[in-house]
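Lab meeting minutes (informal)
Scribe: AK
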Amino acid sequence: MKVWKQILTWLGVMSVLTLVAMGLWYLLCGGDMSTASLKWLQLMQTVGTFLLPPLLCAWMWSATRQPWHWLQLDQRPNGKVAWLAVAIMVCAIPGINLLADLNGRVVLPESLGFIEHFLREQEDTAAALTRRFLEADHFGIILINMGLLAVLPALAEELSFRGTLQQVLGNRHTAIWITAFVFSAIHMQFYGFVPRMLMGALFGYVFVWTGNLWIPMLMHFVNNSLAVLSFYLFDNGTDTNYADTIGAGTTWWLGVLSIMLSIGLILLLRQHAGQK
């Protein structure tokens, strides 16, 4: 099947299942905008938009009807590579914060002030919603949040972006960066666009080097889970995101060091990638 037909098929399946997910949520929750209801919406949208479409498309496109093989999920990852992947994401936190801080300092021309105002409002709305989702008064809610905001997005988004879009586009440099751009853009957060795109590109290159989608999934999970856990460890009940300030502002040097160390670990991962 030609690339454009595969992309249209994927988008078509995604659109239908997204509408089904939203319709199901409305039937079950009646459009209620409470935090619990919005979590159900998040769950259904993630499953309908990002999890099921790549599985269905991979099943259709696989000559042997083995979606796990087409998605490169049928091999166990190299243990050393997996640990290096975890180390990269932990080490990269200050560097990501530095890039996010620089991205957040972008000021649009005065003639585009209305766009900047809209983008800032979107960013504030997304941050407020995330904080609503993360608030918890017992351990069970924390586990639910880890599943909803760390485990599920890591699986579903990597299936859709690296597993499907990047592979359809050809797993080359252009495919990796186009996929990373789309991955970042779809989060609708302009002031986190650059670090998220670079992270998406990293996931894409790791996928190509290892030939195993489990590794980008692991990296995605580590990034999201650290963000969730940092809220409970440092930020819960405060208005300051302490974990997001490490490597930014007066600690910019930690961000620079983080980026340098992360690059070294990435090169080491590449060296070991593909080894049994």
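Next up, CB showed the second protein from the same session:
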Amino acid sequence: MIQKIINTFVWVPDYLKKYLERRTIYTAESDRPINIFFCICDHFEPYWNHADARTARIRINRWLDSYPVISERYLDSSGKRLKYSFFYPEEEYTHEDLNVLAGFCHAGYGEVEIHLHHDNDTSENLKKTLLDYKSRLYEDHGLLSIDKTSGGISYGFIHGNWALDNSRPDGRLCGVNDELDILQQTGCYADFTMPSAPDVTQIKKVNSIYYTVDDPIRPKSHETGDDLEIGRKGKGLLMVQGPISLNWKNRSFGILPRVENGGLMENNPPTASRIHSWIDQRIHIKGFPYGIFVKIYTHGTQEKNMKMLFQDNYLEFLLEYLSSLARNNKKYNIYFTSAREMTNIIHAIMDGKTDNFDDYRDYRYHIAK
């Protein structure tokens, strides 16, 4: 029990440190609007729980039928709807399923990135797996993006079971200590795995956008890194974290605060207070505190979560509430982004571009086809 509590709250010291930093940065009120860049990264697993092909297609089709109706109703400050980010598992790939999802994305409703569950893997096999998968997604389906600098195929990444860089204490569900290096070598433009609390894979560093340099011998290298700062070149793999905080209004055993980790789940749907807690973590690039990045996640093919999102109308509530922040409050500008668009805006801000953000959705990585 004690070890579980330690694993759950290992991130709290860095969280408190950033809380104090935010109070310093925002002590003086400013008339300058807050720009919120919002993204949903879905661990999109249609074959979840050992589903058969028919069940998987039913799950995919529910998204194809339900999502456009909702997303077209709610636009951001630049008149754009939310491009949903489908992180699709390599081990669940079928040509037919990806063809269907690709058509949906080419119509402008979303983008596909890479998700991977693996165990007891090797560096060589991981590299081959990622290169083969990104080639299939690009060549066969016109998915992923192109790096304007290198001309290579690029992708965003989420690790299955959150076990990025062999970060579980028991070494399961990965096995590769130089995983971050391999992600860079195979064209990963950013990792979107964290946060993972209360899972044992949670790292100490939280509420950050930063570069991390891999130690190829040791696991969990992404626990440290340099936060992004305008005008400063970074080294390593770009890490885009979602918000994490302590929810004192919802306590475990009536004592300990529960963890707010940005997950959209059937037993924890979006609410106004949760949305404001994500914004209040003020994940930003040093030198520009008026750009806040909110990356949340879900497992959108699980029936209980689809019910929450679609049947119970919580996805509609979430998009309407965010849209209304900009409509009803001049303090906020809302930008709905895909994972790729969010990364492009991050790079643009790093280069000193701190307005006209809609112009930078394709700043460095553009849609492949």
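CB comment: The chain has ten helices and 15 strands.
No objections, moving on.
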